[in-house]
């Protein structure tokens, strides 16, 4: 045998790196560079339209070699900055054949999606969708309701049933919520690690104590795996793999677990500052917890995920030449 | 971004799977009892040049990228056949990097063909994770090192031919700057081995040295220069340190056992199995990161530490969850859960403890000096 270049590569394609850079610049411009700037930014129509101009939603609806991978990377950046609004929900419904799709892509109409009567962002959305045991349907608003994650949620009720592939919508939703969680989790870790490096107690930085450092390191380990799984799920969606929904579901479970762990570790690392109502962590950790709890929920995923999902990252499942370079 | 194997890698994986058909059931991976058959297995690997896949061609190897060794030992782990032998890994790769021409001529060929088994002599009763504090001493007199002291936790030393010994040749307080690596014949006079049974059924040993003589030409690399060599050899072996298919094999054992028992009808068990399946995927993801991080030493060490931590957490979670499913049959010898529970406990100690691995991630990954 003669050696050849290793086949595995985790390097993102150039267009994905460029898109991530553009999303980072967008967030700095529109949400502020510092966490305390970003936490004060609420959902608004103008903000939503400016995000749509970035092209994220349009890309997510455009069949292409790397459309979902680009979407995934963009959502990681928006999650890191805690962008407010029904991002994952919109990415999910952008997969539907619907006359309103151009308006969603341009940010002129705002869709959202839920799995139960309580739906995130329902109070600000124009178009409501519901996925439950009866399939996909449109929904009607019943009224707004305050929730833990402050997502401008609302109570909704089932309206007209819709034809369409529920599995595909769910797969897109799981991938998107997972990517957002990966970004948010990384934000928690960066914030807490910076504090642990600079805050001194007992004569040294608190990050030198393993009791402080280890939960952050463990969260990082979880997030690194979740990020790769989420990107793999996006690639599986791009490739039309039949098992993409299971991989996206597994990625979401991994991401949710890691992001919540990172959030709780950040709360603890920042001490009392970390539990202030207007502190740097709670505004986003509450949202991540809400996404984990709302249907389609993590609990529901654990009840339905294929027990063969353990093999979904087997390199043998990827055909030669499917790489994105 | 590419998550599939190349044609060449896939073809090699196919060869490995075909070869393994004759060896399934060897089960050394968990028990370590039939050493004659294990030797025969390593010699069969050697006959196919598979113990030297990553060695340079000029040293008798195949010159292949690390992924080939990964593929080999990943499948071995799934089949629970064997772990990578110390001889063809750390020992040979250190000799290749730092040995003299004469040492290469003497040691590499019998290692390449699977003739020699080595045991690792690093830990001591007073020096475990903090190896720089070890005290076993080697003094050079008339062309021979005279070794005194003791080692502990050396796996399978009672069956091995040689010991890869880390010992102090510098001043008592020289820490990492006073350590050397010697190859010690385990049948040397004045060397005594005391085997100890582990919970898993494997054996590790305490080794006592009482004026044991070691020829000077069995020191590899410069005197007092072992620390740098050990770091280099650790880096050489990162990609096979903990194969993800070991985790997959454990998961499938427990899942299939639970299904056979009808336990999945309990929604709590069902959800736990799904959670464990996600843990398996996380380990595969970490393996990808290890395999693709070779270009950056810091990234590579963080990826390897994260991989070890994730994999040991996962196998322990799998084994311990099985005991929590509420089926007393999990406790019996016939259930895979019995052995996995016993065996997985040691995996977070050997090859770098969970605490050391997490510390590496905290330091190199987050800049926290914990």
Helices of chain A, by number, come to: 12
Going by CATH, the architecture of the largest domain in chain B would be: Up-down Bundle
Oligomer: heterodimer
Structural class of chain A: alpha+beta
Radius of gyration of chain B equals 21 Å
Specify Rg of chain A, calculated over alpha carbons: 20 Å
Biggest interface and its residues per chain? A-B, 69 and 59 residues
Average pLDDT number of chain B: 94
What is the level-2 CATH architecture name of the domain at 167-312 in chain A?
Up-down Bundle
Mean pLDDT across all amino acids of chain A: 93
Summarize the structure.
The complex is a heterodimer of chains A (about 325) and B (about 375). Chain A is of the alpha+beta class and about 325 residues long.
Keywords, separated by commas or semicolons:
heterodimer, A: 325 residues, alpha+beta, Butyryl-CoA Dehydrogenase, subunit A, domain 3, 5-stranded mixed β-sheet, 7 strands, globular, disordered C terminus, B: 370 residues, Butyryl-CoA Dehydrogenase, subunit A, domain 2, 3 domains, 4-stranded mixed β-sheet, 4-stranded antiparallel β-sheet, 11 helices, 15% strand
